[in-house]
Structure formats: structure tokens, C-alpha cells
Amino acid sequence: MQIKTRYHEEIEVSKEEIIYFGSGIPGFPEEKEFINLSLGSNSPFSILQSINTEELGFVIAEPFSFFKEYEFELEESVITQLKIKDETDIIVYSIVTLGDSLSTSTINLQAPVIINKRENLGKQAILNTDKYHTKHLLTTKKQKVREG
User: Percentage of residues in the chain with pLDDT exceeding 90?
Assistant: First the structure.
């Protein structure tokens, strides 16, 4: 099927690529079908694109690329809803809010997007913890300025 996308124009997708979000995504409960569009093999970023709404595409990233120590436990209800049998079935992403540069961009570690790649089921799970919040800076490295 052909779909129009926010960042990739019009593309062809197969039914096997569609990830079903039974409850939608918080703020978008009616949006239940998405695809994950890579931004290249060397990029930690991709786009979670609605197949029904061209303008709805979230920039996402695997949070472990930026926060090696990121960890959490999924609630049993999420494990059941996504039909997770083994942790190797899942991929974890976080929604990125782009700033003017990478150093001003943030990532939402409070509500990871969990995708069961075997079942093509997804959910944005809201973690019940004070450890993470919705706007972690992607980079904390200070840029060095060369004196000339």
C-alpha cells in the first residue's frame, strides 16, 4: 500500500511492516497503525510514522545509544498486552524532541515506546518512577571552542 509520510514523502509499505498500537499513543488515541522508517544504517534515529495521518511522524531513537545505564521493568499488563514471551522480542525506543541542534534536543525516558517485533505490537509505556523524565538532553558533552 502507498502512504504519505511526514519526512519520506510517499512510500510503499507492506502489511507486515505495520506496528499496531492497541491504545494508540498518548495524545493520539485514534492513531493505532504505525511503521518504523529508518534514517540510515549509521543513524540512531528513525521515524515512527502513522500510516493514516501524513503529518504524524515521531522522531525516535534507541535510548541506550545515549544512556547506556538506562533500565526499567515493564509492568505485567504491558507484557501481556504486547504478548512478550522473551526480552529479545522487544525493541525499546524513546521519542525525541528536536531542538536547534543535537545539544538542545531532548529524549523522553519517562515513556519509552516498546515494540514487540515478533508480533508487530507496540505501546508507549509510562514508567512509574522519579528516575526519568520527559526531557533529558541528548548530549551533555560541552562543545570545545578553539581559540584562534
Answer: 72
- Check whether 145 has a pLDDT greater than 70: no
DSSP result, 40-99: -TT-SEEEEEESS-TT-EEEEE-GGGT-TT------HHHHHHTT-SSGGGEEEEEEEE--
Full residue range of the structural domain in which residue 78 is found: 2-137
What gap in Å lies between CA 103 and CA 141, rounded to an integer?
8
Q: Tell me which DSSP letter residue 27 carries.
A: T
CATH of the domain at 32: 2.30.290.10
Q: Is residue 142 part of a domain?
A: no
Q: Is the overall model pTM greater than 0.85, yes or no?
A: yes
Q: Does a structural domain hold residue 60?
A: yes
C-alpha to C-alpha distance for 132 and 60, rounded to whole angstroms = 17
Reported as a pLDDT band with limits 50, 70 and 90, residue 144 is very low
> Which contacts qualify for 29-34: CB closer than 8 Å, 24 or more apart?
31/56, 34/122
For 119-128, what is each residue's pLDDT tens digit?
Answer: 999 999 999 9
Domain count, the chain: 1
